[in-house]
Amino acid sequence: MLPFFRRLFARPAAGPPPLADRLWAPLAELPILVGLDAAETLKLRQLAARFLTDKLIEPAGGMVLDDGIRARIAALCCLPILGLDDGWYAGWRTVIVYPGAFVRPRSQFDAIGVMHEWEDILGGEAWEQGPLVLSWADVEASGLCEGYNVAIHEMAHKLDLLNGPPDGFPPLHRDMKRREWSAVFSQAYQDFNARLDAGEDTALDPYAAQEPGEFFAVLSEYFFEWPELVMLEYPEVYQQLARFYRQDPAARLPPYPHPGAEPVLPAP
Ligand SMILES: [Zn+2]
């Protein structure tokens, strides 16, 4: 039933008016949104406006929110569902925004019963059926076509969580094959880990090697921010992501380096 309801709630005609011109104008300059055609732009503005209606964006840690900040968060969070619909972001309500990276205390018993305690410093966090947590400094560093996008990363986790743990296996469309997705991602993940183990200085963020769920989230960031790199390194992953997100960012973004982006490829 779920896909049916998703379609039912996806009718753009029933959606709120698109994001206002004054809020959209600065966002239209973001390198990651360059290349969207008129229909895609309208849909993203509608999705972002509905996101702002449906979700509660809450400040934390002294963050001061304004309409421009809320709009930028909404637009970046909605880019992954531009080819889908907002039913894919159902089941949770709150976005918590810190001014910068935030600290999460962690603890774990090891095999011999010794408690280990440490702190993780995070730019974003996605809770299962709970809030999405973002650092505004990291959101500001996103969308510049430099390969980093905390909003897309955390939203990829949210999509992944729709069918269980964040294992890099989100609910696939009917026209996709689970076995194909699994084979392509497993092979790429193992290859990436092997390259890091061999000491290679990879252009892709080594954080992707943490676990399959992180590989999916990090490759989703690159898919939207720097699609040529995914096409170059793991072309089959690019194809699977294009079929999942129903978007082809490599076709719409100007060739790398994108205008406004700092080239980070090593010199030849
Ligand atoms: Zn992650």
Characterization of this structure:
It is a single chain. With 268 residues, the protein is of the alpha/beta class. The protein has a single domain (2-103, 116-252), classed as Collagenase (Catalytic Domain) (3-Layer(aba) Sandwich). Helix content is 43%, strand content 12%. Strands 1-2-6-5 form a four-stranded mixed sheet. α4 packs across α6. Residues 153, 157, 214, 217 line the site of zinc ion.
Compact description:
This protein is an alpha/beta fold and 268 residues long.
Named at the architecture level, the CATH assignment is 3-Layer(aba) Sandwich
- Can you give the helix content as a percent range? 40-55%
How many separate helices? 11
Amino- and carboxy-terminal Cα gap: 52 Å
Question: What are the segments in which pLDDT stays under 50 over at least 5 consecutive residues?
Answer: 1-13
Whole-angstrom Rg: 18 Å
Largest sheet: 4 strands, mixed
In this entry the ligands are: zinc ion
| Relative strand content | 5-15%
Q: What structural class do helix, strand and pairing data support?
A: alpha/beta
Average pLDDT taken over every residue: 90
CATH topology: Collagenase (Catalytic Domain)
3D shape: globular
The CATH superfamily is identified as Collagenase (Catalytic Domain)
Which CATH C-level class is it?
Alpha Beta
The total strand number stands at 6
* N-to-C SSE string, H for helix and E for strand: HHHEHEEEEEHHHHHHH
Strand order of the largest sheet: 1-2-6-5
Domain unit count: 1
InterPro entries: MetalloPept_cat_dom_sf (IPR024079), MtfA_fam (IPR010384), MtfA_N (IPR042252)
Pfam families: Peptidase_M90
Organism: Methylomagnum ishizawai
GO cellular component, one term: cytosol
